[in-house]
Amino acid sequence: MASIYDRPPIKKTIENDESVIYFTEKHLDVLKDTTRFQIFEGKTGSSKSIVGGIAAFHRIFKSPKEENQFAVVGPDTDSLERMIVDNKSSFYNIYKKVCIHKHSGTGGNRIEISTPTGIKKIYLVGCDNQGRFKKIIGQNIKGFILEEAHIVPESFIGELFTRLYRNNAWLYATMNAGLPDQLIYTAYFNKARPATKYEKDVPEYIWEELNRSKPDPNFRYWFFRFEDNPTLSDAQITELWGGHVPGSFEYNSKILARRGYVEGLLYARLLEKAPEIRLEDLKKENLDAAYIGIDIGHTDKTVFTLVAANSDAEKVYIIDSHEVKSKYEDQQDYTEIIKQYDEFVGQYWKDFGHLIMQVRIDRSNPLFKNQLRNNTRYRNISYQDSKSDKIALRITLKQQLLFQNRMVFSNTHGSAKLIQALKRVRSDGKDGHIDEDAPEIDYSDSLDYALEPITFRLSTKKL
Ligand SMILES: Nc1ncnc2c1ncn2[C@@H]1O[C@H](COP(=O)(O)OP(=O)(O)O)[C@@H](O)[C@H]1O
Ligand SMILES: [Mg+2]
User: Is the pLDDT of residue 408 over 50?
Assistant: First the structure.
């Protein structure tokens, strides 16, 4: 389906040597709107951060003399720097003549703006640094930009709102769709309403969510669509609409920006509700097959994950994961890894041995596969190279299983570690996850390899 909306015309542009910002009527209306709490929800790349950031900048620029401390809060400091300092279209770069970025000195990482009423400081605060967060929001901050609000932990949101109310401060919050029962919606953002003129921009499925709360005139809601980003061409938008199967998880998250289909931290919210089972309560007679995935580390660690599926591939049970510390791989010492593999399988052999159909091993390491096959005590299992499906497919499968409550975690220590690892996996903003030496990816990969043999059955299962 092609875009069903008209493209709003450009009403104004501002430019400097490096970039141009285009304003539609809606963007200009955002700049004029004086509501205290401004909420921008919608699709990735729909211009929420650019427009919200510029609107916040204008408020800061015009703020009275005694208001001189502000903050940008987001899930982590690195991505805030990428979004604001490195992005040529951010308020910081478009108003570079009056902005300066400082890494250190009083207040730490911050942008200083020269305004008619003096220097205004905007602190960059990532929630990955809880100490800094507490220190900064304890100051008299008069306005906040909250980036990626749907993946900021709830404890931070609670504290932020305490400060907002206490300091009589304002807020510009941007987010992709999160999960419907997140505190940020139920306690705050569902109270927001669009201006009458933009009611029609808000999809029916979002109206249903907003209507769960009584409107509060202090909250303004804006829904942003691809059509609201003037730098996306009609062809690109058509391609986005046509690029995913309607009804699929990706269509719901990326194209519709429907709550419940989360982007950002790829699994964290979904994992909060993941079902758990005590290993001794798992009914072995209902299980159909078991699989092991092995992600073999080069310089990083090696992880084994054992999963089992019930007949019909209706549910998959995470039995256990085991991590081999990196000191062994540094010496390319497979003997130790194989020893630990045998211990890992040995402890489950009595209950699951007859079900184990296949072991899938990271295909980038054929040498290890042969070593394992020849030296393990468990030689009658089939050892295969992973196919290594596209990352996007692997992400969607795990999200789908979690969303449908079909991934069940046992109470083993290894399952708990796998959950912790998956909670940390971050979206790269496109179709993948951030991989650069991230230790959680070893866990995630080993799970993917274990699921590989039944991926098709799992993803096409009719419920
Ligand atoms: N009004 C605009 N003028 C110029 N470029 C824009 C505008 N809106 C968005 N962009 C471009 O599109 C990119 C994505 O927009 P952004 O605001 O970061 O999306 P979102 O926050 O909705 O995911 C920006 O980095 C910028 O390059
Ligand atoms: Mg953004």
Answer: yes
- Which region among 307-321, 421-435, 448-462 has the lowest average model confidence (pLDDT)? 421-435
Question: Looking at residue 363, which CATH number applies to its domain?
Answer: 3.30.420.280
Tell me the residue length of the chain.
463
Can you list the pairs that 361-370 forms with residues at least 24 positions away whose Cβ atoms lie under 8 Å? 361/293, 361/294, 361/296, 361/385, 361/386, 361/449, 362/294, 362/295, 362/296, 362/386, 362/388, 362/445, 362/449, 363/387, 363/388, 364/296, 365/296, 365/298, 368/296, 368/334, 368/337
Query: What is the per-residue pLDDT for 443?
Result: 95
Instruction: Kindly give the distance from the C-alpha atom of residue 51 to the centroid of ligand 2, in angstroms, as a whole number.
Output: 10
Give pLDDT tens digits for 67-120: 999 999 998 898 899 999 999 999 999 999 999 999 998 899 999 999 999 999
Q: Give me the number of domains the chain comprises.
A: 2
397 token code pair? 């499968």
Nearest bound ligand to CA 226?
Answer: 1
Q: For helices 334-352 and 366-375, what crossing angle results, to 10°?
A: 60
Indicate the residue among 242, 277, 310 that finishes a domain. Answer: 242
In a domain, 5, yes or no: no
Which atom of ligand 1 approaches the CA of 52 most closely?
A: 17
pLDDT band at 2 (very low <50, low <70, confident <90, very high): very low
Q: What is the mean pLDDT of residues 22-49?
A: 97
36 and 180 share one domain? yes
Question: For ligand 1, which residues put their CB under 6 angstroms from it?
Answer: 21-22, 27, 44-50, 87, 89, 174, 224, 229-231
Q: Residue 151 has what pLDDT? A: 85
- Same domain, yes or no: 219 and 281: no
Category of 460 on φ-ψ map: left (φ > 0), alpha (ψ -120 to 50) or beta? alpha
One domain for residues 449 and 330: yes
Please give the distance, rounded to the nearest whole angstrom, from the Cα atom of residue 48 to the centre of ligand 1. 7
What phi and psi values does residue 283 have, to the nearest 5 degrees? -80, 100
* β pairing state of 302-310 and 316-324: antiparallel
Assess whether 328 and 275 both reside in one domain: yes
Look up the CATH number of the domain holding residue 77.
Answer: 3.40.50.300
Range of the domain at 423: 269-460
Which pTM does this prediction carry? 0.73
Residue 325 within any structural domain of the chain: yes
Task: Give a yes or no: residue 262 inside a domain.
Answer: no
**Residue 247 resides in a domain:** no
Element (H, E) at 11: strand 10-15
Sorting pLDDT into bands at 50, 70 and 90, what band is 1? very low
Q: What is the mean pLDDT of the chain?
A: 92
